[in-house]
Amino acid sequence: MPAERVPPFFRGWATNYPVAPVALSPQFLRSKAPARVALTARAPAPHDPEWMDSHDLPSLPAGRAATLIADGALSPMDLLESCLARIAERDAEIRAWVYVDEAGARAVARERHDEARVGRRRGPLHGVPVGIKDIFHVAGMTTTCGAAPVFHTVATEDAAAVARLRAAGAIILGKAHTTEFAYFEPGPTRNPWNPAHTPGGSSSGSAAAVAARMTPLALGTQTVGSLLRPAAYCGVVGFKGTHGLIPTEGVVPLAWSLDHVGVFARAVADVALAAGVLAGRPLAGPAPRPPRLALAPELVERATPETAAEVRATAARLARAGATIEEVKLPASFAGVHAAGRAVLEVEASAYHEELYRVHAAAYRPRTRELIAGGLTRPAVAYVRAQRARLAFREEVMPLLAAHDALLSPTAPAPAPEGLGATGDPWFCAPWSFAGVPACSLPSAVSALGLPHAVQLVAAAERDAELLAVAAWCERVLDFKLSPST
């Protein structure tokens, strides 16, 4: 590896730290602890005839499934039934789903099958099942927001993102669990890699369902770290675009200035395909090439030693494959962006919930109640100052992001924490949600305890397609193909 490609921050790790995924320790393999995870074999290539075996259909990439359906080589009904069988097999333990619309999904799958037989293809997701986070309205389904029954509503029309999925031919499989109102009170979902560990939040069910091969695609949202953190903890790809890239109409808000709609999948190509449908335009970036990546030591050093070492090892692997890594320092305004974003979040959440809170305050769980109460007492001048601080960081960090293809950092400080009473730390994701720039999480390795590591890639605003091209290049180099136990 050319020395000039490796900054001093991790020089030496290229040869002294293992660059393959971390093996499970002998102690873990001998353990009788309830870590119900084993690493499956690598999946067959998407063009391999093995994909046509019904046992492998749950692992079929979304884009490949859509192609096979269009070619008449796969029925949407068979693909759906493989997902339903997987849900029946695993969801009693994982609890990813609030509601699975078996009858409705089967009816749509039959319709998509009949259309495909006569050469009618509604769009690029024709016949592909998709899970929906339960803060999106889906016509005819209850929106629970992970909250008490007093807050439940039955949707009369689809959220804009759901409508775009339907128009592209997707099959709406059902509603996936969320934390309460997409904040920090956990739902019942467990991590497919180890059910004693959190799957992250707030898009807990969506991430777990994709990781457990219950659906090839799922919708999520991110206001702080609600999409990329679950993607990291569950070992899947998560993507949120530039703020506003995907419409939020019909999504119960947490904070309008910060809410992003995004996608979970098991491959960058599938994320790009679905995100393009949701954005209303293809997100085909330039041909993947070795990128120029920024690395901020102040970010890496905040992670645990194991995660920091894994990020350095990942950077070294990417550098050996041709990427250029440049150490950078974040602008001074970074120091205040977390507090500013929190203030904006409090006020905007309280603005949405104000009327409900006056009548049903006791029905909210403690963390959500504290959030709303804090926002209702925060002065307007404090909100304005927080918005100005947030936007100042966005303005000051944009030249740094624009000078590189992506910024590389941890997605989370460590793999998924043990316990189900919290959803983990969103600190690494928060600045990019508050700045409204695109970000993508990629699984990179497996820890000694059998839980996924991940890295985060961040790009300048409006460079969504370019970021996905960088992510695709990095994905090929990292070659992560492990999955939770069956």
* Rg (CA only): 21 Å
Strand content: 5-15%
Count the DSSP helices: 16
Q: Judging by the overall fold, what is the CATH architecture?
A: Alpha-Beta Complex
CATH topology tier name: Amidase signature (AS) enzymes
The H-and-E topology, N to C, reads as: HHHHEHEEEHEHEHEEHEHHEHHHEHEEH
Apparent shape = globular
Fraction of residues in helix:
25-40%
Mean pLDDT: 91
Distance between the termini: 38 Å
**Helix/strand/pairing class, anyone?**
alpha/beta
CATH homology superfamily: Amidase signature (AS) domain
CATH class, anyone? Answer: Alpha Beta
User: How many domain regions?
Assistant: 1
What's the total count of β strands? Answer: 13
Strand numbers in spatial order across the main sheet = 1-5-2-6-8-7-12-13-11-9-10
How would a crystallographer describe the biggest sheet?
Answer: 11 strands, mixed
Q: Which residue ranges are poorly predicted, with pLDDT under 50 across at least 5 consecutive positions?
A: 1-51
